[in-house]
Specification:
The mean pLDDT is 94. This protein has one domain: Rossmann fold, CATH 3.40.50.1010. The protein is built from 6 helices and 4 strands. The protein has a 4-stranded parallel beta sheet with strand order 2-1-3-4. With 134 residues, it is an alpha/beta fold.
């Protein structure tokens, strides 16, 4: 099984955000112990780095980078023409924001079975199993 990690669960994990951090950590440990393939995109990395970059916190930048690169089982997936065209289709069909459309398109492109997020509105996307923390 291949799981695509959206940005929000990773933010919860590293920031220790209330109940979400514990649930995310438990779920990730289950996947890691079952040899599930974890993957994500360069967009996830970009989104993770925004807040620490704004704050000038190079320690958190490094912490986020190490987290994401340590979790995934394969290289981060870069935006390409096929993903861009699929993202446009998703945005047109579902009305999701551009970053969400890119993430979903990237997950589909990667062959992921599950998209792990905490964005409930993305559960309308029917081409992947959408798993939310809640």
């Amino acid at each position: 099984m291949k799981i695509f990690l959206d940005t929000s669960p990773l933010i919860y994990l590293i920031e220790g955000t209330t109940r979400y951090a514990d649930r995310t950590e438990i779920q990730l440990r289950k996947w890691i112990s079952s040899d599930t393939t974890l993957t994500t995109s360069t967009l996830t990395l970009m989104e993770l780095l925004i807040a620490p970059q704004r704050q000038g916190d190079s320690h958190m930048v490094n912490k986020y980078r190490a987290l994401i690169l340590g979790l995934v089982s394969e290289p981060l997936i870069e935006l390409n023409q096929e993903i861009a065209e699929k993202a446009a289709e998703i945005r047109a069909d579902y009305g999701f924001k551009t970053p969400d459309s890119i993430q979903l398109a990237t997950a589909a492109y990667s062959g992921a079975d599950v998209f792990y997020t905490n964005d409930l509105k993305l559960s309308r996307f029917n081409e992947l199993t959408i798993l939310t923390i809640d």
